[in-house]
Design brief:
- Pathway: Protein biosynthesis; polypeptide chain elongation.
- With 188 residues, the chain is mainly β.
- The protein contains one helix and 16 strands.
- The radius of gyration is 21 Å and the shape is globular.
- The relative contact order is 0.12.
Length: 188
């Protein structure tokens, strides 16, 4: 247990029927009249939904201990993704519903952070950007290089994103894991 005075960004709270909410931001407010309160922005750990919630200052809130472990993606087993704990070398199969969009950027050997609560994986955090090889894209047309257009490119993970016209099959590019946007070429 903690009080709303102890809130920090990233802290995970257990509210309303055991749901886990991560503190995105908070602000202590002391109006001229009446009691102080804490205005928060909370993100549901499982659904990703963001809500605004106000607490009276000093209100007790239940905190959840979420263990964030450094893990490495090993391989896919049926529909499950198998991750290996980089400290203990224990393997943990994680279902596609938990992996979510991270599956679009996972290659064998990819390092990431897995958040675990009471032995159950909650979500996967990837680095902000990953480097992937373009498996296939249509060749750019000569003279098209000056326009700001994009074309679809299939990455080595099977995910498709829009890339600039000058990108060719076999090139290594940097991709933003939060938005799926092309960030630039990787010079090897």
């Amino acid at each position: 247990m903690a009080t709303t005075n102890d809130l920090k960004n990233g802290m995970v709270l257990k509210l309303e029927g055991g749901q886990l909410w991560s503190v995105v931001e908070f602000q202590h407010v002391k109006p001229g009249k009446g009691g102080a309160f804490v205005r928060t922005k909370l993100k549901n750990v499982l659904s990703g939904k963001v809500v605004d919630k106000t607490f009276n200052a000093g209100t007790k809130v239940e905190t959840a201990t979420v263990d964030k472990r450094g893990m490495q993606f090993s391989y896919k087993d049926g529909s499950d993704f198998v991750f290996m704990d980089t400290q203990t070398y224990d393997q943990m199969p994680i279902g596609p519903e938990v992996v979510g969009d991270a599956a679009n950027y996972l290659l064998e050997g990819q390092d990431c952070t897995v958040a675990v609560y009471e032995g159950n994986p909650l979500y996967i955090e990837l680095p902000a950007a990953v480097e992937l090889v373009v498996e296939y894209t249509e060749p750019g047309v000569q003279g098209d290089r000056s326009t700001g257009g994009t074309k679809p490119a299939k990455l080595e993970t099977g995910y498709e994103i829009g890339v600039p016209l000058f990108i060719t099959t076999g090139e290594k590019i940097k991709v933003d894991t939060r938005s799926g946007e092309y960030l630039g070429r990787v010079n090897s």
